[in-house]
Amino acid sequence: MRRIVGWLAGRAIPPFAWVTAAAGAVIAASGLLDAVTSTPNPLGSQWTWIWVGVTIVLAGTPIALGLRFVHWLGLAGVSVFFVVTSLQMAVSTAPVASINNFVLYPMLSCYLGWFYRRWVARLVAGCGFALSIIGLTVNPIDTVLLTWVNIVLASIFCLEAAGYLRKRLDREITTDPLTGLLNRSGLDERIDQELSRAARTGQPVTVVIVDLDDFKRINDERGHAAGDRLLVEFAAALRAQTRPYDAVVRIGGDEFLLVLPATSEPEALERIERLRGSTRERWSFGLAVAGPDDTGHSIRERADQRLYAHKAARKNTAFDQP
C-alpha cells in the first residue's frame, strides 16, 4: 500500500484524470452491487462479471496514463457505458435491474457538461438518452418508463447546470473584471489559436501592445477612481475600433494588447491612427507581425521591444511618432 501511495504521489495526474477515474470507480461499484444482489441477467452472470472487470480497468486507466490521458478517451468511456446499459435494458426482465442501469446518467451528464464543450456534451448525452429509450422500446417495462423520464430530466438539468457553471468560471478566469476585456489567462490560448489559423491560411496576424502614458501621474493627481474610469473608457475605445473577431486584452495595469487576424502591418498602423483620433489620452504602441516560427511569447516580445522604442522616441520629440 505504501508503494502505491508513493507511486501516486510521484505522478502528475490532472484533475480530469482523477474525476474520470472516480466516475469509473462508481460505475464499477454499481456493477458489483448488481452482480451480487440482482436477479440473474439474461445476458448471463458471466457477462455481469466481465462488465465489472472492464469498468475496473477503465477506472484505473486515467491514473495509469496521467497527463497522457486525453479527453477523447473520457468520451469513449461514457459512450461505452451508454451502449452497454442500453443493451442491458433491451434484454432485462427485472424492473429494478433496468432502473439500476441508468440511475448513473445524471452523474455522467454532469461530467460531460463540465469537461466538454457544450455541443459535444449535448450530442453524446442526447445519443445516450436515445439509445436508452430504444432499449425500453424493444423491451417495454411500464413500471420503468416514468422513472426513465425523471432521470432524463435530472440528467438534462445536470448537463446544462455543469456546462453553465464551467462557462461562467472560464469567463471569470479569463476576463478582466474592470474593463470586461480578456486578461492574461485568456491571452495565450487566443494567440496560439490565431497563429495556428495563420499557418493554415497563410494570412498575416499582427499583435499590437498599447501603453498609456503617464498613467501613474493620473492616479496620483486625480485618484484611482479617475484612473479606473480612464481605463474603462480606453477599453471601450479599443473595442470600438476593432472587429468582432479581433482580441482585445488588458495585460497589465495600463497595458493593452490587440490580436489582429488577417491584418498586415500597414493595415494595423491605419487602425492605430483611427484609434489615436478617437481618444484624448496620450499612449504609445509597439507592433509585430507573426512570422512562420513565431510563438505567442516571441511575437509579444518583439511587440514589447517596439513599444519601448516608441516610448523612447516620444520622449525625445514633442510630436507623436506613428
Strand ordering within the main sheet? 2-3-1-4
Residues in helices, as a percent range: 55-70%
**Structural class category:** alpha+beta
Mean pLDDT: 83
Distance N to C terminus: 67 Å
Tertiary shape: elongated
Polypeptide structure, described:
It is a single chain. The chain has 322 residues and is an alpha+beta fold. It folds into two domains: 2-174, no CATH class; 184-315, Alpha-Beta Plaits (2-Layer Sandwich), CATH 3.30.70.270. The chain has 13 helices and four strands. Strands 2-3-1-4 form a four-stranded antiparallel beta sheet, with helices on both faces. A hairpin with a 4-residue loop joins strand 2 (247-250) and strand 3. Helix 7 runs antiparallel to helix 8 (142-174) and helix 10 (215-222) packs across helix 11 (224-240). The longest helix is centred in the middle third of the chain and has 33 residues, at 142-174. It is elongated and about 90 Å long. The termini are far apart.
Tag the structure with descriptive keywords:
alpha+beta; 2 domains; Alpha-Beta Plaits; 13 helices; disordered C terminus; 69% helix; 322 residues; 4-stranded antiparallel beta sheet
Write the layout of secondary structure elements.
Blueprint: H1 2-9, H2 15-37, H3 45-65, H4 71-91, H5 95-102, H6 105-115, H7 118-138, H8 142-174, H9 184-201, E1 205-212, H10 215-222, H11 224-240, E2 247-250, E3 255-261, H12 265-278, E4 283-289, H13 296-315
